[in-house]
Give the backbone structure.
Amino acid sequence: MSVSQGVSAASEDVEGVTYIVDPADPRVDDYRELNSIAVRAEMEADEYFMGEGYVPIDRMIDSGHRMRSVLLHPKRLKRFIPTMSRPEMAGVPVYVADQAVLAEIVGFNMDRCCLASAFRFPMPTVAELSSTSRRLVVLEALNDDQNVGAIARASRAFGIDGIVISPTCNDPYQRRTVRVSMGEILHVPVARADAKDWPDALYSLSDLGFETWALTPDAAAVDLWDMDVPDRLAIVLGAEGHGLEPETMGASTHRVRIPISTGVDSLNVGHAAAITFAVIGRPMRAR
């Protein structure tokens, strides 16, 4: 008996598991070309997204997203069996394939993969999100999915109610973003501003009672520790290197900097976000 046949037989012992032997099997089409952002954006569109790893997949289920399917390396199956028993997994296909078949499916050699796909929720509008929030983070043109994931994880940790993203910001539900955030992005509502409303969306937030703090390393900006924290606040962050556009700075209520050592140029945007969230969440200085 071949290795594939042996694994197939073992998988068939687990109810609800289907062993995939043909990489062209259409049942695993959700998982193709995972390393191509352009292809994945076209495939997933606004319909579904990917999760990778046990914890992000648990977060997918916990967040109420309806699961589509799961794809596992055989050595990932045993630990995944308790997850399969969750009521939310009823009827969700679980596919298992050996390493060679998995590599052909996803387009590269993903070691011992643990993947799942789930349907997306419709995004709220900026107005809908802001109407139910006191603390927001606004991301302009962030193009690093790992930074977006880190900010989402910090948002969840420090009580940020939602994320507003500019029209040119990365898809917040890219596989790497979901993984880096440990699935926390799925528990933080995200609204994308329309191109015609950017950066005017910041003025709209001001009209709704939000102060908007544009984070910048500029020495002329106000020290974060000197700021009084308002009841409604949106922290505005730009991409590393380029930073926020001048128009976005102009649309913000204040320009704010994190004081750091003079020998250091700036902070990673994910670190800057986490520091700022911790500072504004402290129990003092509320007004």
